[in-house]
Amino acid sequence: MSWYCCDSSSRLNKALKKINGKLRQHPSSDLTVSPKKLTQPAYKDEPNNTAERAINDSCPPIAEIYTYRQLADATHNFNRKCLVNVGIFGNVYRGQLGEAREIVAIEHLDRNGSRGDSEFDVQAMMLNLLNHPNVINLTGYCTRGNDRFLVHEYLPLGSLDKHLHDRSSLHTPTLDWHTRTRIALGTANALEYLHNKANPPVIYRNLKPCNILLDNDYNAKLSDFSLSKFGPICDKEHVSVRVRGTFGYIAPEYVKRGFLSVKADVYNFGIVLLELLTGRRAVDIIRETKDQELSYWANRMVLKKSKKILELADPLLQGNFPSRSFYQTFAVAAMCLVENLTARPMMSDVVAAISYISSDCNLDNTNNSPLHEA
Questions:
Q1: What is the DSSP string of 205-259?
Q2: What is the pLDDT of residue 369?
Q3: Which top CATH class is 1-154?
Q4: What's the pLDDT score for residue 109?
Q5: Of all helices (H) and strands (E), which one includes residue 109?
Q6: CATH superfamily assigned to domain 160-372
Q7: Helix or strand or coil: residue 287?
Q8: Cross-strand partners of 149
Q9: pTM score, two decimals?
């Protein structure tokens, strides 16, 4: 007896064929999207990327399909002791799969939530196609009746949101300046890969701290690709789609006209960078109305006190950061948040800037902010 729904698996295969069919229409493109896991081992003479393999193979490679019983065994029948998070998709469990007892995260789609089958399919498909150290590694998936599960690598430190905004746990240490720049650079690298290395480019459009997961070394990894879209190809500059995303992170041109481009992700990144700098949420409804949206608050503070940008720093840093690096990082965030999308930098430029700032970031006390000096 099969524990998974053949119809859903078929949909994923059809989706992959449809994508690769579009790629076939542009044979001159440098096809660089590569699969994470193949159903069969790759041989030396076989094409190395998903699109080329699909052209020559009637069955495009997809991630491993697990049975419900395998996932139930891995989590002791989804015992609450294995529950590590309640995400946007649903409950996330820590499990151990197979004889090797590989530790994985198992997400169970909440059928009563806002996410549906189409977003599950997009999530599984995208994570299978993309391959980068700063993108979460998909192990496989499972569908059984109305149940949907995603299985991916387990990242023990959880989300950036937990470390940056949720101070309810006394066991969560404050992120120091070096760690924040490390997270910013990892996130920027992931977006640069999606925009410039994947072909067609991928627009993430869901960047926020809860979707940035951290491994034991605080390396950032993007998760939740359910809202991602393939970007424009050839001479097109944007795609027109219904506005989706989280209030406070959505680029103005996308909100006003429904124009979605890679520059929308750049704007998203600018907001997250401000969160890393200030420790404030993108939108905080408990504050006064004029200070609820982070971007407006930061802009108002800079216009009001242009020489006191350091006062915007997260109080939890206690002044332990290089002043020049803070100014430079704030300048990068400001460039990402320019309303005119053509004036925003590309993510490759952002990566170069943050790489430079990180290399110049010395935590020597002589370079610390003067705010808390004696």
A1: ---SGGGEEE-TT--EEE---TT-EE---TT---EE----S-TTTS-HHHHHH-E
A2: 59
A3: alpha beta
A4: 83
A5: strand 102-109
A6: Transferase(Phosphotransferase) domain 1 (1.10.510.10)
A7: coil
A8: 108, 142
A9: 0.79
